[in-house]
Design a protein that fits this description.
Elements: H1 2-7, H2 43-53, H3 57-61, H4 100-105, H5 109-114, H6 118-124, H7 127-133, H8 135-140, H9 151-161, H10 171-177, H11 182-193, H12 196-199, H13 204-216, H14 227-241, H15 244-247, H16 252-264, H17 274-279, H18 283-287, H19 293-309, H20 317-332, H21 339-352, H22 360-375, H23 383-406, H24 422-445, H25 449-482, H26 487-497
Length: 499
């Protein structure tokens, strides 16, 4: 990362925090310059901005200094994200990728006639939703304090943060303790612990606003691809960044990129996969020409939020462009269709022993591998956590399958609840995707305690899923031969056949 390193020399690679620094999260009310209950702008200015949201493209271009993105795309001159630059030039619906209206158009000519015009589409979105969804307005009005729980809960959350580097970290409990703000709280803490706020001279209020933007652009109605998943991946990334083989070479720029990419790698995920978007002719599939559709969208959405928040506005332009490009490289690496590409390259490096982590390119490649590991690390967690994640991701698959069935589309692989069981899906995922990657990661790290712990959990969890699958098959065969069995008979049968 020559551009970043030229402006931010890494005098202390892998630095965590200075002696005496306390790794504390930053509640909104305690942020410098923040006064609870006050507005950033006075009422006339706010009303003026509300009117701007509803005006035409030409008028909005005159409000560039207010934070509205222009139509030019600084990322290589390619087409910008539809969420960042709509056809009318209005930052109107920041969650426009979610296939809310698209589902109503599928196989339904009556509804398609009703919402065929842009004017009628806007009527489907209430003014209240339009107001709150707009990133432009969300940046104007400071968020209320996120910490609405009593001190007992806050104390427990702070205690958990002191153990954030432990692999058995329970992100579900942490999310409850932070009142659903696990991602924001975790990011504030980690940016402080790693000294990134001081190193990059980040404004804490702006940083917090950006984290809130990222967290809110995840869809809580998704069983799996939501802000809790992002927080879980970020916590895993933090653990991997502390691995001795990697930590001693990392610069502050590497650490910031790794944490930002982990936090935003699935932002604005619609809860359906790429094949679904392609076969329903979703606008994102057209925009990115059916290649890494979701990953490109996550990346461009992140860049849009970075620019709107002006988090990095104080840095030289070439630095911010370098950060944007490298964020894209990291997020695009999470495309599961590129799994073999990265695995073959990693195997080649390890076999030839030619990884030079002093080199920025090799470090960046290992950050890509670390992010890929963090993204699919659920099978390597303790059973209670791993099982929850497995059930969540399968529930999301089944919802997509139900939609496809409803609109008479071919049901995608793994999305048929009648044929694809949770144990069978997980066993296949562990065998063909997770195991090969984590075995190579353990080879890279030198079989550290963390790597060994993850592989042990992976093997135990796979054995448990196999046992559950065996029970399901046995129960199914018994029902076929003897008809319907009672609950007590089924329980006895399962107990007898448990390995």
């Amino acid at each position: 990362m020559p551009v970043l390193e030229r402006f931010f020399p890494a005098a202390e690679p892998g630095r965590r925090r200075r002696t005496g620094e306390e790794p504390m999260p930053f509640p909104m009310g305690s942020l410098p310059g923040y006064q609870q209950g006050t507005l950033a702008w006075d009422l006339p200015e706010m009303i003026k901005m509300v009117k701007l949201v509803w005006k035409s493209k030409g008028e909005l271009r005159g409000a560039k200094y207010r934070g509205v993105l222009e139509s030019e795309d600084a990322l290589g001159g390619s087409a910008g994200d539809a969420r960042v630059r709509g056809q009318t030039g209005v930052v109107s619906e920041r969650r426009g990728s979610y296939p809310f209206i698209d589902f109503r158009l599928l196989n339904n000519t009556t509804l398609s006639g009703e919402i065929g015009t842009k004017k009628k589409v806007k009527r489907l979105l209430s003014f209240q939703r339009y107001f709150h969804a707009s990133r432009l307005l969300r940046g104007i009005v400071p968020q209320a304090s996120l910490y609405l729980l009593d001190e007992d809960y806050l104390g427990q959350a702070r205690h958990m943060l002191s153990k954030v580097g432990m692999w058995d970290f329970d992100i579900f409990l942490f999310d409850r303790l932070t009142n659903g703000n696990s991602l924001v709280t975790l990011l504030c803490h980690l940016f402080n612990v790693h000294g990134l706020i001081h190193h990059f001279q980040l404004d804490m209020v702006t940083l917090h606003r950006f984290f809130v933007m990222v967290q809110e652009d995840y869809h809580s109605q998704n069983p799996y691809h939501n802000a809790v998943h992002a927080a879980d991946v970020t916590q895993a990334m933090h653990c991997y960044l502390r691995e001795p083989k990697l930590a001693s070479f990392l610069t502050p720029s590497d650490i910031m990129l790794g944490l930002l990419a982990a936090a935003a790698h699935d932002v604005d995920h619609p809860g359906v996969n790429q094949p679904f978007l392609i076969k329903t002719k979703h606008h994102l599939a057209s925009l990115y020409q059916n290649v890494s559709v979701l990953e490109n969208h996550h990346w461009r959405s992140t860049i849009g939020m970075l620019r709107e928040s002006r988090l990095l506005a104080h840095l030289p332009k070439e630095v911010t462009q370098d950060i944007e490009q490298q964020l894209g490289s990291l997020i695009l690496a999470t495309d599961i269709n590129r799994q073999n590409e990265f695995l073959i390259r990693l195997k080649s490096h390890l076999d030839n022993q030619d990884l030079r982590l002093e080199d920025a390119q090799d470090r960046h490649f290992m950050l890509q591998i670390a992010l890929k590991c963090a993204d699919i690390c659920n099978p390597c967690r303790v059973w209670d956590l791993s099982k929850q994640w497995s059930e969540r991701v399968c529930e999301e698959f089944y919802r997509q399958g139900d939609l496809e069935q409803k609109f008479e589309l071919e049901i995608s692989p793994l999305c048929n609840q009648q044929k694809d069981t949770v144990p069978s899906i997980q066993i296949g995922f562990m065998t063909y995707i997770v195991e090969p990657l984590f075995e190579r990661w353990a080879q890279f790290t030198g079989n550290t305690p963390l790597s060994e712990n993850m592989l042990n959990h992976l093997r135990r969890n796979k054995a448990k899923w196999k046992s559950l699958l065996h029970k399901q098959h046995s129960s199914s065969r018994s029902n076929d031969h003897s008809g319907q069995v009672t609950g007590s008979q089924e329980q006895n049968l399962n107990e007898e056949e448990t390995p």
